[in-house]
Amino acid sequence: MDLTQVIYIFVNGIYLGSSLIIMTSGLVLILGVLKVLNFAHGALYMLGGYFGYTWVTMVMHGKLSFPVAIFVVFVAVGLVGIVMERFFIKRVYGANVLYQFLITYGFILILDGFVKLIWGTRFKNFGVPEILRLPPVTVLGAYIPPYYIFTIIVGLLVGLGLWLMTARTNFGKLIVAAASDSEMLNALGKNVPLIYTLVFGLGSALGGLGGIIAGPILSIYPGMGSSVIVPWFVIIVVGGVSIRGAIGGSLLVGMVRSCGSLISPRYELAFIYILMVIVLLFRPTGLLGGEKVH
Amino acid sequence: LVQKNLCFGAIILVLLIVPVLINSDYFMTLMAEILILGLFATSLNLLMGYTGLVSFGHAAYFGIGAYTIGLILQRTTLPFHFALLASFIVPAIAGLVIGYICVKVGDIYFAFLTLAFGELIYVIIVKWESFTNGYQGLVGGFPLPSLIESTTGFYIFTLIVVSLSLLIQLIILGSPFGWTLRGIRDNTERVDFLGIDVKFHKLVAFIISCGFTGLSGALLAVFSRGAFPDFASFWKNGEVFFMILVGGLNSFVGPLLGAAILKFLKTYLSNYTIFWEIILGSILVFFAIFFRQGIFPSLERLYGHLIARVNRYSGGGTC
User: Fold this and answer.
1) A286 to chain B: which residues are within 8 Å by CB?
2) Closest chain B residue to A236 measured between Cα atoms?
3) Per residue in B4-15, is it b (16+ CB within 10 Å) or e — as a string?
């Protein structure tokens, strides 16, 4: 194994990990604060992909199309999340995880159904955006696609942004407080239901962001959310329910998959489930702590 | 419990003979599938509803059962009844090994751990192509005994296997062992203080559940003349959650009812409207918010009210 190969595996691992940070941080945020395991997070991710596809191919063309699309998708999917939470999800807070499964599974079907109605069942692809069609970067003989670098930057920005938000801003501190003791926060006169709605909206928006960032590389199709959600749970378990858990878990899982694909491309996914079993047995709260899942 | 459910069972059994009498292939196919999925649902409910353990990876044992019978029938000359028996035993052994690890951890981690093992098995089924034929599944049909080749034959065979399995499950649930499981569900600590080995009981319940789940998988494999990776996927498990929760988590008949409802909804909605997914999803959301106990317990209560009212009017107060 030469150096070039090592760089490929390393960069690929970081790339996979960064895209996972974008996709899973919203899921973890919602689980940590609202104690809801949102199975429909994958469906919101799918929605992000489709909104982005429509924006890039129909609404706006040119160099600025993709950057604007990212912003539009973030807001639009966030709004979908806010509607979901306000009218439906808030009614299963504190309920058995099975009912959370039932309601979010219902949303998977509903969103899949709408996507099929509006966009049809065919696979869609919108290709690498114009602004990022640059020559590959060469690092010690290894060619790295610019889109990988872009994804890594976005992933790190999302991670950094969430970390700064919880550590430095007022809203972030309210979120942390709501996660650990929402009753006390309520007693202090803060509007807890509003915080919950905003957190769900932010989490959904991040899921949508994951969708549009993945769109140019992967195909988008109805039901794409269901195929990714289960591997995302591995990250929750491995990292633990916290922002740093989501970041660390994503990077670790990305790296394990990248190395796994070298050892045995066929059983690449099997490695992360074995990792999940090991973590659950020896450190059930996740490698990077966070509190217990309820 | 056994007697009450036997009464129900007898009525349902009589109803189930009807398709044979009117000799309608369409209804027999429909009912056979409902019975098979119903057995899957009651087997998982043994764990969820009665022991209080949520398994997110149960479809794996369904898949193992299906592949066991399929591989034995396709690759060996062993007789059918041996293959059917093996499709109970092999998933049960898998359940023994995996369950032994899973019962060590607390409830929510139990759910995640079963999910991890379930997905592991799914990946193996999809990727071990030389053994399982990968994504395509075991296709090409199985050599079957002539008795169950016909639709009627298979329907009666399914009816017998499912009824016997349900009867065995009922007997288990009515036994002291079954009541201990409910005790674990309602108050694990107290059962533990009584000196009862909680982990051992959980493990045995898990093994029994896996065995029957595998058996139902084998029936579906025979029904669809093939075994497919989809049988073992997480979303198969999700459909069964639907059946259990819509039918009624804390009842024995509920999941069967749920299986029937899901099958009917899927068949009729997808025949008549392109909005079927949206409608089905809305029904789920409705149930999760407003109707958590499920249909069957509500029916039972309604029945209880009616009986009470009839008794009041007729002056009899024997209930």
Assistant:
1) none
2) B112
3) ebeeebeebeee
What residues in B contact A116, CB-CB < 8 Å? Answer: 274, 277
Q: For residues B316 and B319, what is the distance between their CA atoms, to the nearest angstrom? A: 8
Partners of residue B104 in chain A, C-beta under 8 Å = 281
Residue A276 · residue B116 · CB < 8 Å? yes
For residue B196, the 8-state DSSP code is -
H helices of chain A, where?
Answer: 3-34, 41-54, 65-87, 97-119, 146-168, 170-180, 182-187, 192-214, 224-239, 243-263, 268-282
Q: Rounded CA gap, A111 and A81, in Å?
A: 12
Q: Any idea what DSSP says for residue A136?
A: P
Res B175 pLDDT > 80: yes
How are beta strands A137-139 and A142-144 bridged, if at all? antiparallel
| Shortest CA distance from A294: residue in chain B | B108
Chain B residue whose CA is closest to A265: B127
What pLDDT is stored for residue B319 in this prediction? Answer: 34
Say if residue A53's pLDDT is above 60: yes
Structure tokens at B156: 């009666």
- Residues of chain A above pLDDT 90, percent: 32
Backbone φ and ψ of B293, nearest 5°: -75, -15
Q: What sign has the CA pseudo-torsion B136, B140, B141, B142?
A: negative
Candidates A88, A226, A234; nearest CB to B285: A88
Q: How far apart are CA B137 and CA B225, in angstroms?
A: 11
A250: exposed, middle or buried (C-beta count within 10 Å: 0-12, 13-18, 19+)?
Answer: buried
Asked if B238 has any chain A CB less than 8 Å from its own CB, the reply is yes
Counts of helices then strands in chain B (DSSP H, E) = 14, 0
Q: Helix, strand, or coil here: B24?
A: coil
